[in-house]
Fold Transaldolase.
Amino acid sequence: MDFFLDTANLDQIREGVELGIIDGVTTNPSLMAKEGIKGEAAVHAHYRAICELVGGDVSAEVISTDYDGMLREGERLAALHPNIVVKIPCTKDGIRAICKFTDELGIRTNCTLVFSLGQALLAAKAGATYVSPFVGRLDDVSEDGIALVRDIVNIYTAYAYDTQVIAASIRHTRHIIQCLDANADVATCPLSAILGLLNHPLTDIGIARFLADYKKVNG
Ligand code: E4P
């Protein structure tokens, strides 16, 4: 399973990349706003900076909600760097735009804001490179986000769709382990959730004991 960082924060991306286990980045307009990035020129410069930091795919989301706007914006985003994947919401105009990007423009897409198997089916039929079911936001409304990831993976496998499943809206370390069990292709996570995988008290106790034994002999 690949790890993407779900952030637009350059320091966190740098820290994750230095760790050596980050395969890409996803962003959204809220994450860009959190970094105080305003205006198209600044947004584009920020995406270029992210692409220079990380070796893999970087999802850049359109803010247009109409077909023509999505195409215009998506083409500009895709031209910024070969690793940019245009992130498009799962709406009627969005599905139409994904078809156009896939079939005619050779631009890779991430179909986002997916909350049902039906939406994931349309994303795959449109030829999206990635689909992003939002695990945490489904859990927030008493639905089972991980079950949706598992269902999408099973259906894509059964029908041999190429679209890769990014488990998104990951809130904590346990979600990551559940994504593994659901056979997600990618989990896009906050850095804190990934670092949480390292935590085990027996590791800390083991290090302390090894050092104490070493010191007994070596002083
Ligand atoms: C997906 O790519 C989104 O950027 C993200 O995972 C949304 O997560 P949230 O529900 O924590 O905002």
